[in-house]
Amino acid sequence: MNDSTLPPPENFDKHGFLERYAPALLNQRKVQQMLDMYAKGERTFRRLDLKGVTLENLDLTGIDLSGANLTNATLINVNLTCAKLIEAQLVNAELVNVELNRANLSWANLRGATLVHTPLTKATLRDTVLPSGEVSD
User: Fold this and answer.
1) 81 Cβ neighbours under 8 A, 6+ residues apart
2) C-alpha closest to that of 34 among 17, 20, 23, 47
3) 3-state SS record for the chain
4) What is the C-alpha separation between 12 and 49, in angstroms, rounded?
């Protein structure tokens, strides 16, 4: 392959594929690193950029993802019991069968998030932006 077979730079990503999907693919690598460290006993992963990642069938009890960016993330069958998600960004995230028993979501942003079989009744919600955009008491 030579340079003449490559598309011109202005047309290279005219549909925005890289802008939309490259960050999620790169962030998915961060997930694997995080899981490896979690398996070794580490629990603090503050301010991680995890936009667009998929977390599925995981037990992350006690993890600290305070300030993490999980915008557009998908969480399926994830145990976040006693997790710290303080100031986490979960904008437009999809949470399916996520256990949030005693999780702290204070000042988190869940605007536009979809929660299926994911009750917030046992979670701490202090000034949390709920999926509807309302702020919790």
Assistant:
1) 61, 62, 99, 100, 101, 102, 103
2) 47
3) CCHHHCCCHHHCCCCCHHHHHHHHHHHHHHHHHHHHHHHCCCCECCCCECCCCEEEEEECCCCECCCCECCCCEEEEEECCCCECCCCECCCCEEECCECCCCECCCCECCCCEEECCCCCCCECCCCECCCCCECC
4) 26
Give the span between the Cα atoms of 110 and 69, in whole angstroms. Answer: 11
Mean pLDDT across 86-91:
98
Residue identified by tokens 């011109």 is: 8
Split at pLDDT 50, 70, 90, the class of 136 is confident
Q: Is the pLDDT reported for residue 68 higher than 60?
A: yes
The 10s digit of each residue's pLDDT in 9-43 is: 555 556 655 555 556 667 888 999 999 999 999 99
Closest CA to 71 of 84, 52, 87, 85: 52
Average pLDDT, the chain: 88
